[in-house]
Amino acid sequence: MPQPQSRRRCIFSSYRRRLLLAILMPALFLAACADNSASMLTGRGPAAAQINTLWWIMFVVGAIVYLLVMGYLLLALFRRRGDRRGDDDEEEASEPDEGTGIVIWGGAVIPAIILAGIYGATVFTLSALKEPEIPEDLTIEVTGNQFWWDVNYPELGIRTANEIHIPVGQPVAVKLTSEDVIHSFWVPELHGKLDLIPGQVTEFWLEASEPDTYLGECAEFCGVQHAKMQFLVIAQDDEEFLQWVEQQQQPAPEPTDPMIQQGQQIFLGSSCVYCHTVEGTNATGELGPDLTHLASRSTLAAGTIPNNRGNLGGWIVAPQSIKPGSLMPPTQLTGPDLQALLDYLETLE
Hints:
It is a single chain. By secondary structure, the chain is of the alpha+beta class. It has 3 domains: 4-83 and 102-128, no CATH class; 136-248, Cupredoxins -  blue copper proteins (Immunoglobulin-like); 258-345, Cupredoxins -  blue copper proteins (Immunoglobulin-like, Sandwich), CATH 2.60.40. It has helices spanning 4-32, 46-85, 100-128, 238-248, 258-268, 309-317, 319-322, 335-345; strands at residues 139-145, 148-153, 158-161, 163-167, 172-178, 183-186, 193-196, 202-206, 212-218, 230-236, 299-300, 305-306. The strands form 3 sheets. It has a 5-stranded mixed beta sheet with strand order 3-2-1-5-8, with no helix packed on it. Helix 2 runs antiparallel to helix 3 (100-128). The longest helix is centred in the first third of the chain and has 40 residues, at 46-85.
């Protein structure tokens, strides 16, 4: 049989392993988040910067409390072990009020001070996130669908999908709603997240401090393709933004090339017209994204794949193999007809 001293040593070793695991676990979680293209810890707009400041305050305070608690636990474990190894140590009767000060200060006073400070920082952050004055022409309506984003600029007469273009250094109002289930709009580098509620409109704002492309995503589980419901926020300087607006306000070009004309007829004669709109044609469907400027977008299927000819062809004929559960049905086409259709769709810039 193991001796009592050996048994105590085994128990202490087990405690030590568990304590080490508890200390290392947060580091493992942080390591898992290190390679994230939409970093939650990089504020590249005034709203995100305010949120990140609050997050760092909470993180630092939480880390200090965590280290103090772990240190106190280690001290208690080592002291207990040392007491048991003493040859002439005798247990002394504990005073009735022993440890009372630690309980009062560590369990009530200090936590109250910390919580009051965090509350004050939170109230300050919320006040800083109030929507600023925004011109009417910089209002964007975003509607969540399973599993894509409909983007409308009502004052500019622009409708697109899965891409939001904004001018750098200017706040833009965003009005959010949903056509089916609850979604959540989140651009980690620019702002916090806000839910899209069916039948309701929630208001939001975005502002980017520098030109770049920022990844956004749905942050509320909304179905089988929730993970592939992304969008891009493209922040441009004033000149590039105005050029984009002018381009998007143009109707689809009328084809003159015979092959492209054939592709247009294939498109207009297919079931595509019941779901999609192309300005200037009889395609007026609204179940799917507006395709008037499809070729100008960076991705297909809400950020699932890059927008190129091969992916576009695959998305047309076999969408369920790319995004199972999406509402995009397959389209049966011969090889020549598919190539003609692709020629036409590539002109929709």
